[in-house]
Amino acid sequence: MVLGGGTGLATLLSGLKNHTSDLTAVVTVADDGGSSGRLRREMGILPPGDIRNCLVALAEDESLMGELFQYRFEDGPLSGHSFGNLFLAALTKVTDDFEEAVRLSSKILKTRGTVLPASLDLVWLKAELDNGEMVEGQSAITGSQRCCRHIWLEPDNARPTGAVLEALAAADLIVVGPGSLFTSIIPNLLIREIADAIAAADCPRFFVCNVMTQPGETIGFSAADHLEALREHSRPDIVDAIIVNTSEPPAPVVEFYRAEGALPVMIDWERLEGLGVKVHAAEVASGGNYFRHDSGKLAASIILLLDR
Questions:
Q1: Which of 14, 124, 143, 257 is the most buried (most CB within 10 A)?
Q2: Shared domain check, 44 and 25
Q3: What is the rounded CA–CA span in Å between residue 189 and residue 159?
């Protein structure tokens, strides 16, 4: 079972589906930017974008149907919308049930696993930045170019679906991340029942640390900083192991990211060991113009750790 959102979660799923079809993805519903944000505001539905990406990542055949779901209109009143987002929005209106719309979409795409929204409640993400400023909305947080000090959901009483809690209780492995720490990963854990269920789960619980810091969220964060933020927003016992990357990006790629305000995440071994978690270090990232988790390497590393 994996929890997160954004491209990080989809990357992991596309790798894991080659090892097992017994997969469940719990996806954040706090997105409010782009096409998802427009549909959320105009139609009052949950944001479909991250869920669409996960459905496509798990699709048995990612070619034609995957391309169709990811197709983004460039002109006219639909400009900026992806077909998959519109499909999920229409199906939600037809069934009057977002969870059912996701299930039917999964059936159409023949996914090798299950995709679940973390909650069916409409929630907004709010944050206090490192300069004391308060901002509202996932897109405003990522666009602030400031580090997050603290985030929370409003309303603060969002409930997980029964399917999410059942999946957590039955999980053989729970993987948190990768993805944007404050806007894709932690929002799932701000739903108290989800955090409690993860901590109570009788299985290994891994946190996949990001390979690069992120402007507007984690400027200057080390691996231990990522883990501490995760714990502070959920529970100290939320995970029992962290996976960190030891691959090194080429110098030109580092300079490209440095110009954008990002750097490779530093592994501060002593601090991590002092936090009482197992540290699994492996080469799980690669890239050409971009440096990010490699779906195959990350999935293989997770399976290897589970087998051990």
A1: 14
A2: no
A3: 11
